[in-house]
Amino acid sequence: GMQRQGSDGVDGASKNPKQPLIEAPTNCAGFGTPSPPLDRNTQMDVDSEGAGIQIDAENDASVGNKNVSPNEKKRKRVYTEEELREWERVVKRKLDDESDRIDMQEDENESSNRELYALFNDLQGIQADFNIRISAPELVVVGGQSDGKSSFVEGLLGFQFNIVDSGIGTRRPLIIQMINNPEKTYPSCRFRREVVSATDADLGFSERDLEDETPVEQLAEQIIKRTEVRAGVSKDRVCDVPIILRVEYKHCANLTIYDTPGFRLSGNKQLADEITKTVTSLMEPANRIIVCLEQATMEWANSNSRPFVARVDPNFHRTIFVMTKFDNRVKELRGPEEANAYLAGENLPPGSRPFFISMPVRRNLSNATRFKDSMKECYLKDFEILADSRFDEEKFGPKIGFFRGKKFLEKLLHKKYVESIAPTLQILETMCEESVREMELLSVELRNTDINVQAAKVANYISVFCTTVEKLLDGTTYCDTADWGQSPVAELADSGVALWPHESMKKLTQDDDALTRKHYGHAQINSILYEC
């Protein structure tokens, strides 16, 4: 029949007033027989009887394609109020499931990592006792200025404390030694005494190098104070000498994190060069995992941090990409095609997909539970928008939210732990074998110091000595004449006389072999007697 456009913009009127036809908003596709969200400016057709919705499959599939013709974009999916309510219930169930999943995941991670952390704590105790260097997993967090590096580090720690400043907040590298200590229900934070230069910042320091405990609420003040002492108060300088902080807490991993100054592309060139040099030196060690942060509002082609990271890790084999402040971008994703295209990324290494996270803007969430709940709330808000857009949850869901990224890092760190424990155990085994050998040698020496053993050795030596002298005097082949004998020529030289006194010996001067033949003992005595 002929189609009519009513004053409310909907073609025709429903002949069933109890069930009006409602235009589906862009965030409510994906239930029943789903179709992607449509542009609100496109036309939609309802049959003249108002009894059903006419969906053209080809036109429906073309939604989101900017190259389709106006005629192909004219039809629009329309949902009833009941369908909209059903979709709201679907989204709510998804959010409830995600909330439960996060809580369960956190509990499982803490339980599964407990034994591993306990083993590593034991190894670290051995390291201190025997001066063995054990390589713990290390993360270097890099990114541009105000890309959320410090907030990300706070998330890994499990509590807020750091400087989150609109200016250049981190002006000295902050090295955080996280130690999982089940007995510490409240974070125990201790700074290392300041070192002279970056080369002195060895992490293998002892307890006596640590200062007294600093309360969490005073950490930011201490970091600012230590930064200004070395880098000044004008915020136009950085210092490569790191601040080292040891944190013991039941909710943190055994991990070393490097929070770095942000890359700068404009402004003070000398400052930008100093930052690049400092951060590059921290990224260079091959055992460190690089976490590259960028704001999600930045287009993929305009990446600032990736080029810096590529100088050290050209193929990004040890680099993890994290897009921060995702809440500012996710609200712009209007449908599945747009959402999936953005989440897939551009110009990334094959098989590499970034994580997308939002962190709490609110500060002073010193209570760990409130901070965790706020991070979960940020994630659920992002997930709700993505769920409404009907994004590819199976493909991109594992990359959404801080807790997903944290789980990925913990799995990677678990692998690194295993890799570092194996050579450490080999070192300990070698040390045990050397200790066993040394103990055996000491045991032999102790046995040899026994007076009866020493008396037996002396008696045996005297007996052997007397027997050997007797044999030598009698004449024997017991000893090698080449080593112990003496020739007539040598004997003449040692005697101090010019010529042999006996005529028969003088005749030997013509016989070179007789003059150089060596003899000793009885033979030599007989020779002397013959001469006399």
Give a quick rundown of the structure.
The protein is an alpha/beta fold.
Molecular structure report:
Helix content is about 45%, strand content about 10%. With about 525 residues, the chain is an alpha/beta fold. It is elongated, with a radius of gyration of 42 Å. The termini are far apart.
**Rg measurement, Å:** 42 Å
Number of helices: 17
Assess the beta-strand content as a share of residues: 5-15%
Helix content: 40-55%
Distance from N terminus to C terminus (CA atoms, Å) equals 156 Å
Order of helices and strands: EHEHEHEEEHEEHEHEHHEHHHHHHHHH
- Arithmetic mean of pLDDT: 75
Mind summarizing the main beta sheet?
9 strands, mixed
Which of globular, elongated, flat, extended, rod-shaped describes the shape? elongated
Uncertain stretches of 5 or more adjacent residues: 1-66, 68-75
Sheet/helix structural class: alpha/beta
Main β-sheet, spatial strand arrangement: 6-5-7-4-8-3-9-10-11
Please provide the count of β strands. 11
Features:
532 residues, alpha/beta, nine-stranded mixed sheet, two-stranded antiparallel sheet, disordered N terminus
Topology:
Blueprint: E1 21-23, H1 57-61, E2 78-80, H2 81-130, E3 138-143, H3 149-157, E4 174-180, E5 188-192, E6 210-213, H4 219-231, E7 243-249, E8 255-259, H5 269-283, E9 288-295, H6 305-312, E10 319-324, H7 327-330, H8 336-344, E11 355-356, H9 368-389, H10 393-396, H11 402-448, H12 451-474, H13 481-484, H14 488-495, H15 503-507, H16 512-516, H17 521-531
Parallel strand pairs: 3-8, 3-9, 4-7, 9-10, 10-11
Antiparallel strand pairs: 1-2, 4-8, 5-6, 5-7
